[in-house]
Amino acid sequence: MNQYLHITAEADKDGMLSVKKWEIETVAETEYSDVLPEGAQPLTEDANGYLNTLPETSVEGTGLA
């Protein structure tokens, strides 16, 4: 669990700070899971190290592309 302190302060003409508001935010850590949702495909890297995010497809036919 992570906690963050948020402070809102205001400086007067002499440079003295006055705290106007403070809040502690608690953020729960998320668990890592390598289980993919049903129907999801893992990402793969091509020869250059780029992630391939497009589904594999095949095209058959003749003609100019």
Mean pLDDT: 78
Helix/strand-derived category reads mainly beta
Order of H and E elements? EEEE
Assembly form of the protein = single chain
Please give the largest β-sheet: 2 strands, antiparallel
Described by the principal axes of the CA atoms, the overall outline is: elongated
Rounded Rg: 26 Å
Written description of the protein model:
The protein contains no helices and four strands. By secondary structure, the chain is mainly beta. It has a domain at about 1-25. The strands form two sheets. It has a two-stranded antiparallel sheet. A hairpin with a 5-residue loop joins strand 1 (about 1-10) and strand 2. It is elongated, with a radius of gyration of 26 Å. The model has no long low-confidence stretch (mean pLDDT about 80).
Brief rundown of the structure:
The protein is mostly beta strands and 65 residues long. Helices cover 0% and strands 38% of the residues. It has a domain at 1-27.
Itemize the secondary structure elements and their pairings.
Layout: E1 2-11, E2 17-27, E3 44-45, E4 51-52
Task: Tag the structure with descriptive keywords.
38% strand; elongated
